[in-house]
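Q: what does this look like with zinc ion bound?
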Amino acid sequence: MLKKLASLLFIFVLALPLQAQQPKKLNASQIHDAVKKLNFLGTVLYVAAHPDDENTRLISYMSNQVKARTAYLSLTRGDGGQNLIGPEIRELLGVIRTQELLAARSVDGGEQRFTRANDFGYSKHPEETLNIWDKDQVLSDVILAIRQFKPDIIINRFDHRTPGTTHGHHTTSAMLSVEAFDLANNPNIYPEQAKTHGTWQPKRQFFNTSWWFYGSEENFEKADKSKLLNFDIGVYYPSKGLSNNEIAALSRSKHLCQGFGALTQRGSQTEYIELINGDLPKDKTNLFEGIDTSWNRVKGGKTIGDILKKVETNFNFENPSIHVKDLLLARQLIQQLDNDYWKNYKTQEIDAIIEACLGLYLEASASTPTASAGETITLNIEAVNRSPINMELVSYQLSTDKTATLKALPLKNNDKQNVEQSLTIPKNIQPSSPYWLNKKGTLGMYKVEDKNLIGKPETPRPISVTFNVTINNQPFSVTKPIVYRYSKPDKGELYRPFEIIPEASAKISEKVIIFDSDQQKDISVIVKAGRDNLNGFVQIAHPNNWSVFPEKQNIDIKYKGETQTLTFTVIPPKNQNEGLITPMVHVGEDVYTRELVEIDYEHIPYQTVVLPSESKVVRLDIKKRGENIAYIEGAGDVVPESLRQIGYNVIVLNPEDITTERLSAFDAVVVGIRAYNILDELKFKQQILFDFVENGGNMIVQYNTSHRLKVDQLSPYTLQLSRDRVTDENAEVTLLEKDHPVLNYPNQITKTDFEGWTQERGLYFPNQWSNKFTPILSMHDKGETEKQGSLLVAKHGKGYYIYTGLSFFREFPAGVSGAYRLFANMLSIGKDNLDNKEQFKD
Ligand SMILES: [Zn+2]
């Protein structure tokens, strides 16, 4: 089923920007392109580490110009990146980036694969990467991709010979790809896997080099290119009305959460690949040299090739249905091939072509976008043949039901048949959530229990319908996933995947709840019904030394999709402590402990994700001074909400609102991450901010990158940003200035406060600064020199300017208590006279 979908995706190239989820229908020109591709028997696998690493120019060229079956193997799903379009981070970001890759492939014509490796964040060296990934599992998944996909050619995005020069994940992807090149052909390596999928020896392996890897264009000009092949990836495709590089840009622009929306490009451009395994082709533009990529490649293929070449050459753009007879004949011969790989793959391709030649429209749409186990819904089944060929719908069959429904309806030219069919969702069906998130994995690996799912881009759709038709009395079947089709007056027709959701789900409104004293707090629990008339009760699971009351509360929700909010009171222990709390929804015999997350963006299909529902509760031992904080938002972080949780009054200020008068109401200004990379207006506001500090305010600036800074002067004193970062979240921290107020007032900071940090210590630390700054901390990654720029404090006039690359934006949402205590000190510095001020008030 999923295989079929994948094949449809890659054939349905370039039906331009429809909504990502709308089933695409091929026009005559696209059918002709698909026939040409059908007549090419060669495969290319492109290998890198993250969504957006892939060179879409080359993938599009291989798929559309060379016409090879082309796939991108991304080792990870990109969980560790940042999100420029919404609040999703970590595994939810990985879900978005997975879908963005699929959307990119539907534009450039490639297919998509993954391994179980998790993008745990930045790593400097492959050695560090392989300490966190399970090398054996990732290698096994790379070999699996090779054994299943059987590439003639492998192209690595990165150089396996230069560890330490780029992200450790990048080099590792190339190293594992090189290691797998020969191992995939050894039956003793992962023998079970070899038994199921066979072994495979790729013919050649390349590294997708460019001048960038040589340091400069001049160096590249001079370099020895005897092992390099090259392609003009700017070639124009008249059948598409687009150049290859235009398609590549449209594909790359799907990576919206990474901010990759970009202009299209045209004109001749050369792309290079360097041979690293296999023999060097004489023709430096033919990476398939010596491989027969015609139908003669397979035993029994010649006749098929003869038939299909005729279809390609004599293609009738006015009436493609005249080719159906020949296509069906070729299809029959394909069924007789001994070679299972080509038999299966070419069957999928030719089926999609036959369907398109018939103008055949087959759809099963549900009356509702979601349903839960046991629910009965209505399917609207639509079938219409838009060709003069004699057809009949003999029967259709739901994937949940063994017996086919007999209909025997004639499918006359353009005479639509509509059938209503009721569907009861099986009791034992699982929610249609991303399969790699079903079980808790490790920092470096997803846990996938069902071996058949490993490598697949997404969870196979839960329920499909197979249409059994006859074409001129010959049987033919088409399988379609159930969809949900609806319209909005301001959007037009829309599609959503039909999904299975749990009958009840619940979440606590905050993921981290900070208690800055032993005062109790109320929490909201939101229960969502996955079916009508949901009754039961909710309890909160919590650690022993915490209390929650009442012990249980009833729920009574009338309609599916509706929510009910319950308030529980949480009492923290007296001393610093942390733990997890989980809502448990009891319905009859069943207990539901998961939450339903919905992800809705226009450029990818609607996603429902079912995750363990848990919130972290933290009893903090924290003191603070100052009260009113102005926050200037940068690329987006949850620091304002986090500071509110510990009792600060935080107002988010737009850059235009930064005036001396406005600032006078605040004790401190905090600048959000990368604000100086994003907000042009800040260059006009720096002096106002520095004056604020001079007059006694505190200013805390979080990390920015030196690339594309919008201001000349980040701070009142010299400060030079670098790319220094400490990626090991457990790297030892040395307190350089034990007596400095920022480490002592009002909270005494010790090494304990640097325990339990997550993902990294910090990034883009300054490496040069004026002697007005005091470096407070020192830390470094394994094998590197001390980095002292993570926290720099300068007294400026009556106030303090603080620059910090420490990753508070990651630690706060994870409820890391030491990060809160240190930040409270940064806000409180110099405010020790506040108590006096209070006295004056009396
Ligand atoms: Zn990358």
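The chain has 20 helices and 43 strands. The longest helix spans residues 90-108.
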